[in-house]
Design a protein that fits this description.
The structure holds two protein chains of two kinds. Chain A is an alpha/beta fold. Helix content of chain A is about 35%, strand content about 25%. By secondary structure, chain B is mostly helical. The chains are: A alpha/beta, B mainly alpha.
Chain lengths: ~575, ~325
């Protein structure tokens, strides 16, 4: 076996806080060999990125390396001075960050940034640096490098930008690249291309890659070695095949089990059982209190007919001078009573805009929305208030969807108070019940949202949405900001609610395996248009549109996984 | 981090406990500048509030004045009456220490009231502009832009002049304080409106506002109950710094003779009166009110600066 190019030995990082010493990384040890891609996987807060930052010497101020060693090609680098560390950073060790938009300087052309970086690390003439830069752009498969060389970052798409960032990382001919969630901000189709590129580069230039990710699919597709981290510690180290097919540690086992499977439809999502305990909650009680929902007259609770949304792209005084961007283009579908309807598509395909139009958060520019036979688009403000009581929404970002200055009690009670659904003296009791049902303790009511984790906040959101006893629930990417273990808990809550309360749901997601588990029927959106609507099983087994086929092919393959 | 159910103590901490536990108070305890400024400001404000209890004489009560005591230097007995005054007396025999305490009351009252007025007006207009956008936004913000093209002291003098013109002569002295508040407040609302508008635009896009709209809350309820509490910290910071500026603005106006009348002297009026005696040797009549103004404005300003840093670590 070849000598490792980078070794991390017993690395511990500590952050002094006012509540004592906090150790986000404890005794982490792993090696990277030339040309090898090592995946580092774990939930948020597991210390994956912190380890990467310690290697590059980019720990944010109060954080520091408490003990342990980092060796790069036989040289110890963790105890070097600021100047020497800077030479290594971007020199021997390259970096790729999550967000390609913020890691490029918007004021300089791609070419200028590449040439500057090359000249900073290699002593070459301007002309030679430019040649190298062009070769690098070609190397990362950017078409027509000569033209692209003089363009600015905003003229590149997300995937192209990430390629440029990779080219920047390669400028100094590094021996190791630290890639921190390099594809998380990208769509699935682009993600696959970027990962392929990283794989190819590692093989050809013999650069060692540390690939930090939370996505088991990425690990399975891309890496040869994997390090599983939990709570700042390495729980398992080994070759990817071996760790995925025969995990030794309990945490790894449950983490792998919790990844939604695209192949089969399961009744419930398997949960990560290690560490946290599963919170139980009592749906049955809620069902008893739940007002009997009337079935809709036509059997179709929601009918959407040719709805269109245009956003102003260029404003002008005269209406005829204005230009518009069509975000949603004549979308038509219906949702039956008690059905879970999925909407999938890449970012920018108009899924959320559809959801917001149904939720009356955005005005409709054309077409009709009918709820239980009533035309929403023609309602008076008073009727809309009644309609809004019957629909509720769960948002993607659990951090912005709860008012940080309101106590949980007030947040959940607000719909009850506003619609005067209960006498004032019963409100607090109902809030307690609702919190109980989503698996939060009673003490939660008196706290503020910032005291909760992402998953707990999403539970609060669900409690708020249930307060008005809605007939229709819109879930806009409810779990895409959450870790896989917490995702399973939230999705199970939604599934149970749907089953026991007969809720009708619109479920929006870009995660196809999740959609397969959750939905009865699925619509596929592409550039504002709904291109295909099918029963879930039919869609996954026999997609009609080429675009759908492509999406399905790009689903992360976890075929080799057990379970 | 795993999503454990919260194992919190069932006891809910009291408001006081929360305040003492907060990061802000923690940062406060560790900042000598903040502590010193807060102590100085607190001493000055408290002594102004309790002026009638602290001041040895009431400078507004003509019967307590003795013209013979005029121009007594600090800490020295008067040549005719033998009375000693801590900070000396002015030309009419008024105790400078007492006039400072009473003058500070007026300065602080005008400062607080003017800032309060500017904050309320600025928040109201800023929320309207940010939340509704469109022509309301254009109208309010253009008005703000126009006002910013004039120096605020000029705006204040203009308002003061107009107000003086329309109030009857016999009420002028009584109205002077309120006109000052109006003038300073009106010249100061723009910065609050701008900050509030910007913050409102950010908050408006967040999902908790969408959630409130879905519940069916009316725009005014959303603005006051949801958005306002979330944009108060920048407003608080500007208000603190504005307080110092308002006190100075009041002093400037009074110094120019268009502010508080001589019968209700503020610190600025005292400085105006005092500067006439500076070159004839009676330095204390000017010096002590000026020092008090400096200490007051500086301590409040430093407190505001510290507050801004503490609430927004990125600015450090």
């Amino acid at each position: 076996m070849t000598e490792p190019v980078l070794s991390i030995r017993d690395l511990t990082v500590e952050i002094p806080t006012r509540h004592g010493l906090f150790k986000p990384v404890q005794n982490v040890t792993y090696d990277i060999r030339p040309g090898e891609i090592r995946g580092v996987v774990g939930e948020s807060g597991a210390g994956k990125s912190m380890t990467g930052n310690a290697v590059i010497g980019l720990l944010d101020d109060p954080a520091r390396i408490a003990s342990g060693e980092i060796w790069l090609k036989g040289r110890r680098i963790d105890n070097l001075g600021v100047e020497e560390q800077r030479a290594i950073r971007g020199g021997e060790i390259g970096m790729i960050f999550q967000d390609p938009l913020t890691s490029l300087n918007p004021l300089f052309t791609i070419g200028e940034q590449l040439v500057e970086t090359i000249q900073l690390h290699l002593k070459v003439s301007g002309k030679e640096a430019k040649e190298r830069a062009l070769a690098l752009l070609d190397r990362v498969s950017i078409p027509d490098p000569k033209t692209r060389f003089d363009q600015y970052p905003h003229q590149f798409s997300g995937g192209m930008r990430q390629r440029v960032v990779i080219a920047l990382a390669l400028c100094s001919e590094p021996s190791v690249i630290v890639a921190d969630e390099p594809t998380t901000a990208l769509d699935v189709s682009i993600q696959a291309q970027v990962l392929d590129l990283i794989k190819e580069l590692a093989r050809e230039t013999q650069v060692g890659v540390i690939l930090v990710t939370h996505d088991m699919g990425v690990i399975a597709d891309t890496t040869e070695q994997v390090t599983v981290m939990y709570n700042g510690q390495v729980v398992e180290n080994g070759s990817t095949d071996q760790v995925l097919s025969a995990p030794k540690h309990e945490y790894t086992k449950s983490l792998i089990a919790a990844v939604p499977r695209p192949q089969v439809k399961l009744h419930r999502f398997p949960q990560v059982s290690y560490g946290g305990r599963e919170t139980t909650f009592k749906i049955e009680d809620l069902a008893r209190n739940w007002a009997k929902t009337e079935p809709s007259k036509s059997g179709k609770l929601l009918e959407v007919e040719g709805i269109t949304k245009k956003f102003l792209e260029k404003s002008a005084i005269l209406p005829s001078w204005r230009t518009y961007f069509t975000a949603v283009d004549e979308v038509t579908f219906d949702i039956k009573d008690g059905e879970v309807f999925g909407l999938v598509g890449e970012s920018g395909s108009g899924k959320s805009t559809v959801a917001r139009m149904i939720g009356t958060l955005l005005d409709v520019d054309g077409g009709r929305i009918r709820f239980d036979g009533e035309e929403v688009t023609a309602m008076t403000p008073a009727q809309i208030a009644g309609y809004r009581r019957q629909i509720q929404m769960i948002f993607q970002d659990p951090f912005s969807s709860l008012n940080p200055r309101m106590k949980v009690e007030s947040i959940v009670a607000e719909p009850l108070r506003h619609h005067k659904l209960l006498p004032v003296d019963q409100i607090s009791g109902r809030v307690q019940e609702l919190l109980d049902r989503v698996g939060l303790t009673r003490a939660a009511a008196a706290k503020y949202p910032h005291e909760f984790s992402g998953g707990q906040r999403q539970r609060i959101s669900i409690a708020r949405a249930l307060a008005t006893q809605p007939r229709f629930l819109i879930c806009d990417e409810p779990t895409s900001a959450l870790d896989v273990s917490i995702q399973a808990q939230i999705l199970n809550i939604l599934k149970d609610l749907q089953e026991h309360l007969g809720l009708t749901m619109l479920f929006i997601s870009h995660d196809l395996p999740v959609v397969r588990q959750m939905c009865d029927r699925v619509g596929v959106m592409k550039q504002g248009q709904l291109i295909e609507v099918q029963e879930t099983e039919t869609l996954f087994a026999d997609p009609r549109q080429d675009y759908t086929k492509k999406l399905l092919e790009l689903m992360p393959r976890l075929a080799q996984l057990s379970g | 981090m795993t999503d454990r159910p919260i194992v919190a103590p069932e006891v809910v901490p009291s408001r006081m406990r929360r305040a003492l536990d907060s990061d802000l108070f923690y940062a406060f305890k560790r900042s000598p500048v903040a502590i010193v400024s807060a102590v100085v400001a607190a001493i000055l404000i408290l002594s102004a509030v309790f002026a009638p209890l602290i001041a040895p004489t009431n400078p507004f009560d003509p019967s307590s004045l003795n013209l013979m005591n005029g121009f007594t230097p600090p800490m020295a007995p008067n040549a005719f009456t033998g009375d000693t005054f801590l900070l000396g007396t002015d030309d009419q025999g008024r105790d400078v220490f007492s006039t400072i305490l009473y003058g500070m009351r007026i300065s602080l009252f005008v400062g607080f009231a003017a800032v309060l007025f500017a904050v309320v007006l600025g928040i109201f207009l800023g929320l309207l502009a940010g939340y509704f956008g469109g022509w309301a936004d254009s109208f309010i913000m253009r008005a703000a832009d126009v006002q910013l093209t004039f120096p605020s002291i000029l705006v204040a003098m203009l308002i003061f002049g107009i107000a003086k013109g329309i109030t009857p002569v016999e009420n002028r002295d009584q109205m002077a304080i309120w006109v000052l508040i109006l003038a300073i407040g009106l010249s100061d609302w723009v910065q609050f409106a701008r900050v509030v508008r910007g913050a409102t635009l950010v908050e408006k896009g967040k999902d908790y506002v969408s959630a409130a709209r879905l519940i069916g809350r009316r725009p005014y309820a959303i603005m006051l109950r949801h958005i306002l509490p979330n944009i108060l910290s920048p407003v608080l910071v500007i208000a603190t710094i504005s307080l110092a500026l308002a006190i100075i603005a009041e002093a400037t106006l009074s110094f120019l003779g268009v502010g508080a009348p001589a019968t209700q002297p503020s610190l600025g009026t005292l400085i105006r009166v005092g500067q006439g005696f500076l070159f004839s040797g009676e330095w204390w009549i000017l010096f002590f009110p000026a020092c008090t103004l400096l200490a007051l404005a500086l301590s409040v300003n430093m407190l505001g600066d510290w507050l801004r840093d503490a609430l927004n670590p990125r600015l450090k």
